[in-house]
Amino acid sequence: MARALINVPPKAKVGDIIEIKTLVSHPMETGYRVGLGGEILPRNIIQTFTCAYNGEEIYRAEFSPAVAANPYLAFHTLAMETGTLEFRWTGDNDFLLVETASITVE
Amino acid sequence: MRALALALLLVAPLAQAGEIPAAERRSDTVTMSAELRAMQADDMANPASFWALDGQTLWDAKAGTSGKSCADCHGDAQASMKGVAARYPAFDGATGRVLDLEARINQCRTDRQGAPPLAMESRELLDLTTYVGLQSRGAPISSSDPRLAPAIETGRQLFSARQGQLNLSCAICHDDNWGRKLGGATVPQAHPTGYPIYRLEWQSVGSLQRRLRNCMVGMRAEPYPFGSDAYIALEAFLMFRAKGLPMETPAVRP
Question: For strand B97-99 and strand B90-92, is the pairing parallel, antiparallel, or unpaired?
Fold first, then answer.
């Protein structure tokens, strides 16, 4: 089952630098490995990750086959206003996972 | 490279010999890099959390001809499974056999749920074992059942006996040479505190039996079949040897 774990501070002050941490379950199959029957295991990776803060993209990452399974990402942003962070992972085989988290900024 | 390192390790004078003194026993979590220790300590960074979460879903899912879930009989795992993994393998009075946690869970599946057994190392069995094991985090390993004595003794013999094309025993590495280097790896004391583990080399969660299988392949010995009494005896001995150390399931290992 595709799942993600997201860690966003629930509260912050305007102008605070906050750390956002994400972990997503995904095999990140490289496309270079050989299966038990000698066949090439087809590539199955996440290609992009984006994070939008109240609709505005604040972070984007592009993944390659060299990225380990269950990718973990941590990044920083400025707490500006109360609202929603939207996290979106897309990849091979129409992989799409969207999660949200809310933050209160005072 | 690995063979060379092994040769160096074996000609070097032995730093210690014999069983590890109680005061020096420790989980090899402490010998990992700061990054890996942080990954293990934070459930939001430890990928094994996905196995535990899926295990929780399975715990509540009805299965088999009984139409019952684990929760229907055991209730909240946080209460009913607390400390259970810290005393496995355990003696099963009904069959007179010693069962590890995986075998115990499968016994409930077949005998009580009326469902087919889950294959060793299958995702579902790892999910359930991780979830049940998680409920013992921090609990000291405590195997005190005297009926385990024969299995522990068999395990001790398997641990000390030389085997495989390299003519090594588990004890030569894990009792006599722990803390020293084998290639890039630090030879651990081999305590089963964190199983099932998330191993970076596997990119996945795996059982203690899978870890033991890896060491046997490294010794050029023929691995036992998954689920065999020999593995269960080794597991029982390793738990006995690690008595008192806190459980860390699910640990992270390189």
Answer: antiparallel
Q: Which residue of B has its CA nearest to A29?
A: B203
**CA-to-CA separations, B196 to A23, B27, B207, in angstroms, rounded:** 19, 14, 5
Q: How many folded domains does chain B comprise? A: 2
Active site residues of B: 215
pLDDT above 50 for B68: yes
Question: Where residue B65 falls among pLDDT bands split at 50, 70, 90?
Answer: very high
Residue B206 is assigned to a structural domain of this protein: yes
Q: Is residue B208 part of a domain?
A: yes
Classify residue B16: in a domain, yes or no. no
Which parts of A2-94 are beta strand (E)? 4-7, 11-12, 17-24, 46-53, 56-62, 72-78, 83-91
Q: Model ipTM? A: 0.89
Q: Are B147 and B36 contained in the same domain?
A: yes
Clarify whether residues B130 and B195 are in a common domain. no
Domain contains B13? no
- Please indicate, yes or no, whether residues B235 and B155 belong to a single structural domain of this protein: yes
Of B50, B54, B57, the CB nearest to A70: B50
- Are the Cβ atoms of B47 and A21 closer than 8 angstroms? no
Local confidence band at A2 (pLDDT 50, 70, 90 cut-offs): confident
For B60, the domain range is 49-134
pLDDT tens for each residue of B72-97: 999 999 999 999 999 999 999 999 99
